[in-house]
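re the bet — no i am not wrong, look at it urself. input seq straight from the record:
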Amino acid sequence: MTFLTGSTARPRLGWLAAGAFAGLALAVAFGPALTMRPARAVDPATTPEHTISVSGVGRITTVPDVADVRVGVMVTRPKVRDAQVAAATAMQAVIAALRKAGIADKDVQTTSLSLQPVYDNSSNGNAPRLTGYQIVNAVQATVRKLDTISDVIDGALAAGATTLDGITFRVDDPSGAEAQAREAAMKNARAKADALAKAAGVSITGVSSISEQSGSVPVPVPYLAAGAAADKVASTPVQVGTNEVDVSVGVVYLID
């Protein structure tokens, strides 16, 4: 059996300590490089899409089949009660005239009903003086037989209407025209996308998104307040004209 003496053991312990220290230093120096790291898979959702964004417009011209006529009465009296009675009597006569012209009750809707004080501001530097009250009562009548528009207007004015706010022509069911305009808008958008793709040397592979805006453009016929018009023998001429239904789309196409 061999025993190490004190002088021999101390150097060997020093070598062991030095080796441990060197190993620790290497571990510290190269630890980050040797540490196991989880593999990162590529997320398909983060892959940027190659796209072309275009807009398309479709426009269809239609012939209106209904009209909305707005007529009413405007009455001013010194007292509220007197103004109310006069306005009610006049409007009842106007509504009766609309019925006589063939307008159904479901197609007559009150659009304005207001009571306002009337002041005289002509006094020199004095406070305005209350002179009476004004009541405005207006209705909108939907005319479904366009060849009777003149009769509806003239009858209402003859019955006592003092305001004629205008006429709006429209298509009662615009869904068919909107479908045609939508199809035209998509064809317009695709034609633009095809031209861009050809110029860029790429191919369209699909659609990423579509957005739409639609609406009809009515043809308003303005009228001024008319009281004397009812005294004319000639009937009021009215031209129906045409309307336009517009649909705009925004389409984002995928390309390859």
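see?? The chain has three domains: 1-37, 51-61+176-215+251-255, 63-172+219-241. told u. also The first helix runs from residue 6 to 34. so pay up
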